[in-house]
Amino acid sequence: MTKLSVNINKIATLRNARGGETPSVTEAAVKIQEFGGQGITIHPRPDERHITRKDVYDLKPLVTTEFNIEGNPYQSFIDMVLDVKPEQVTLVPDADDAITSNAGWDTKKHLDFLTEIIAEFKNAGIRTSVFLDPLPELVEYAAKAGADRIELYTEAYAKNYLTHKEQAIKPYYDTAVEATHFGLGINAGHDLSLENLKYFADTIPNLLEVSIGHALVSEALYMGLENTVQAYLKRLAKW
Ligand SMILES: CC(=O)[C@@H](O)[C@H](O)COP(=O)(O)O
Ligand SMILES: NCC(=O)COP(=O)(O)O
Description:
Largest sheet: 8 strands, parallel, barrel
Mean pLDDT: 97
Distance between the termini: 11 Å
Strand content: 15-25%
Bound molecules: 1-deoxy-D-xylulose-5-phosphate, the ligand NCC(=O)COP(=O)(O)O
């Protein structure tokens, strides 16, 4: 079964546009879980452009499914995650000035760094996932670093899905096979949508979790949040 973790960054983007509490990030998390969401993902960035430090702490007691915190492991991020103790942390090597996440880790180059940081999270009982481009040769080093899972960075798949989906998914399939070989769990995310999710989930073996935010919140403008979450769950259902 592939779990749906809903990324609520964009709810915070909308809230921050007016500086108040509407829409409420915590209420959205509670509702999403009532509607069937199996996890809540957030990506607190250093500039707090959407999710703030306060949101992270406010959300912790309200996330009764799986709490997944993504981010670049700066010391302040590491300290916060160790304090909050979510079920999962996803390490993402994003530049501060990037508009969104735009690359996975070079796990070979950053092996020592990742090994040290992953050990800290694992000692605290936090499952650790490493954001990865679909490059099978990097999987071995994610495993060497001690990661529990990889998160496949699906932007390229999403971009090419409409024109040549078989070609677009091939490197993801190959990377997933390699991850299974090394005993790593597989997550995926970035630009997954109602349109492109089913083919991805049906094709990638052992896909444990997808985290989806931008498209889901955009689709919810027309369909409503409950219908949208339900529609995603249907795309992930195997029957
Ligand atoms: C890690 C990742 O893939 C991202 O999709 C991220 O969580 C989205 O971040 P923004 O909402 O800041 O674009
Ligand atoms: N890890 C990916 C994620 O949380 C959501 O990415 P997106 O759907 O907002 O592109």
